[in-house]
Amino acid sequence: MRPKFVAGNWKMHTTAATARQLASAVVRGLGADGRVVVAVCPPFPYLALVGDVLRGSSVALGAQNLYPEEEGAFTGEVNPAMLVDVGCKYVILGHSERRRKPELAETDAFINRKVHAALAAGLHAILCLGETLEERKSGQTEAVLKAQLAGSLAGLDPAHMARVVLAYEPVWAIGTGHSATLEQAQQVHAFLRRWIREIFGEETAAAIVIQDGGSVNPDNAGALLRQPDVDGALIGGASLNAEQFLAILRAALS
Ligand code: PEP
Fold first, then answer.
1. Ligand 1 centroid vs 217 CA: distance in angstroms?
2. Does ligand 1 have an atom closer than 6 angstroms to the CB of 64?
3. N or C end: fewer C-beta atoms under 10 angstroms in the chain?
4. Least confident range of 26-35, 83-92, 193-202, 244-253
């Protein structure tokens, strides 16, 4: 059986003080309950201090991005080894805020380099995928997701896939308060798992964790996480509030 995996994406929020408070509250609230896998992903400058707070707890540390080179003249960038060095287990890659913002415009080919670099360094990659509202309305959801999967996962084998988590985050649901319906989420998650089965085989498809994301909150998390192919959630806004995040973790167990 696949574990439920809930991760908090703090995006470009928090200060050193609030990051420490938030991480402490999550650790305290979760206690030793190991039934749900939990990670928090603070901004780069706070990774080390949040890592200190998480040490010895069951909450893992994740980053929100990396640069796919080992080292060198890449001003402002952070390599995978640095993330491992400060205690990260996970890294979020291919988030729609990086794919779709014109200033960033990350392509599947670039995200694919990041996935390879993350795995080579020993990290687990949380690969985000999702369609826009226009793409959904014009019936392109599966085609868009297929292209994102094929592009971002090119060159990987089933052994690599043991350290890949998928996060289905329809762009129209992120930060909008309009999460995918249970039916929409289950339909897409089942499609993603079928695609993984075709390319990587039954064992990988049965084991891969597929999170849902986009306006997941304490009210909708329980029903969403009971869908057969929804194995967890990537939480943005609600992960900045310890009570809400902990309520989602409790819902994951219901
Ligand atoms: C996200 O951006 O990863 C996300 C899920 O955001 P929100 O929960 O705020 O919609």
1. 10
2. no
3. N
4. 26-35
Residue positions annotated with a catalytic role? 95, 169
Please give the Cα distance from 48 to 53 (Å, whole number). Answer: 9
Measured in Å, residue 73 CA sits from the centre of ligand 1 at 32
Centroid of ligand 1 to alpha carbon of 158 (angstroms) = 28
Tell me the C-alpha distance between 82 and 240, whole Å: 25
Number of DSSP helices (H) and strands (E) in the chain, helices first: 12, 8
Quick check: 253 pLDDT over 90? no
Protein residue with its CA nearest to atom 2 in ligand 1? 236
Phi, psi values for residue 138, rounded to 5°: -95, 15
pTM of the model: 0.97
Q: Supply 230's token pair.
A: 């929804």
pLDDT of residue 193: 98
